[in-house]
Design brief:
- The protein has a single domain (8-280), classed as NAD(P)-binding Rossmann-like Domain (Rossmann fold), CATH 3.40.50.
- It is built from 10 helices and 7 strands.
- The chain has helices at 17-28, 40-50, 66-79, 105-115, 117-133, 145-148, 156-178, 224-233, 243-256, 265-280; strands at residues 8-12, 32-37, 56-60, 85-88, 137-142, 183-189, 260-262.
- The chain has a 7-stranded parallel sheet, sandwiched between helices.
- The protein is globular.
- Bound molecules: nicotinamide-adenine-dinucleotide (NAD).
């Protein structure tokens, strides 16, 4: 899919951060974009501002709700005539990290409801419709180097959720091809430096019903500045990434037909080799960051 002009794209969590960068890049390519996000005021601002560069509309959506995502898909297929590109991008951190045994059941429930069930809901509601349309299309799922490549030990819940997304996307890509569909899947690893997004304050969208029972101070490395220091100490790029540029980078990968879209894949591969060597020897793989 190298010409996105006139194609319909849906971006979950597209009102801010990395998702907004993808939306801007899509509009720059002439795509018609539906932004699905849970934060109405931020969604309204994004649609107003981005409406100046292309065709974009917002649909208030909670990806953790199967009904909400099903309503989104029905809306898009009824009003936009289909969907060619689905970006399952919305995601949250469980908040504050910490030791695995300190994570509460509600940390798991909330993080997985958005990061894992949110992607599953997107796939369940959109993929059958996209296949049925017979048109060429793609599902891009946002994972993370944290979990998708190697877990950051103090972020065990988030890392586990992102490992699930990398695993699911690989299975999806194989099955879309094996079933002879005109669809494919890709996994996106936002990377290339420090990402100054709302992920650091993701708790703003946490429902009261899944609040943490025992508040605790954040673990080291879970603030923007601490994470920056960790990246620098690990010798990894720590410059703040231009999110518009990252969105364009993601689309270049889509247009090239890459399955894995990410900066620094050599470094990721080196990490995976170290992991494979340790696993083959029955040893604990090295920690990604700690
Ligand atoms: N920021 C990073 O360092 C980083 C690194 C790797 C991967 N990611 C992934 O990138 C994706 C985007 O995150 P970001 O960093 O741009 O964060 P962000 O908070 O800036 O953007 C996330 C967007 O998702 C929306 N959202 C949250 N819960 C939702 C829900 N239940 N339903 C619909 N929308 C919801 C938010 O309102 C927000 O607009 C996430 O999947 C995240 O895990 C981020």
């Amino acid at each position: 899919m190298d010409d996105l002009n006139g194609k319909v794209a849906v971006v979950t969590g597209g009102a801010a951060g990395i998702g907004r960068g993808i939306v801007e890049a899509l509009l720059g390519e002439g795509a018609r974009v539906v932004v699905a996000d849970i934060e109405q005021p931020v969604l309204d601002v994004a649609v107003k501002e981005l409406g100046e560069i292309g065709s974009v509309r917002g649909v208030l959506t909670d990806v953790s709700s199967a009904e909400s995502v099903e309503a989104l898909a029905a809306d898009v297929f009824a009003n936009d005539g289909g969907c060619h590109l689905l970006f399952n991008n919305a995601g949250v951190t469980s908040g504050g990290g910490g030791r695995p045994w300190e994570q509460e059941a509600n940390d798991w429930a909330w993080c997985f409801s958005v990061n894992v069930f949110g992607v599953a809901h997107g796939m369940l509601s959109f993929v059958p419709r996209m296949i049925e349309s017979g048109e060429e299309g793609i599902v891009v799922n946002t994972s993370s180097m944290d979990g998708g490549i190697a877990p950051v030990p103090y972020a065990s819940v988030y890392a586990s959720s992102k490992a699930a997304i990398s695993c699911l996307t690989e299975a999806l890509a194989h099955q879309l091809a094996a079933a002879g569909t005109a669809l494919r899947a890709a996994v996106f690893y936002p990377s290339g430096g420090l990402l100054d997004t709302g992920l650091w304050t993701a708790q703003r969208n946490r429902p009261a019903s899944l609040a943490r029972r025992k508040p605790r101070p954040p673990a080291p490395g879970t603030t923007f500045e601490e994470f920056r220091a960790q990246l620098e100490a690990a010798g990894r790029p720590a410059d703040v990434v231009d999110l518009r540029e990252l969105g364009r980078f993601c689309l270049e990968g889509v247009k090239r037909g890459d399955f894995v879209i990410g900066h620094g894949l050599d470094e990721a591969a080196a990490m995976l080799h170290r992991r494979a060597d340790a696993i083959a020897a029955g040893r604990l793989p090295p920690a990604a960051l700690s």
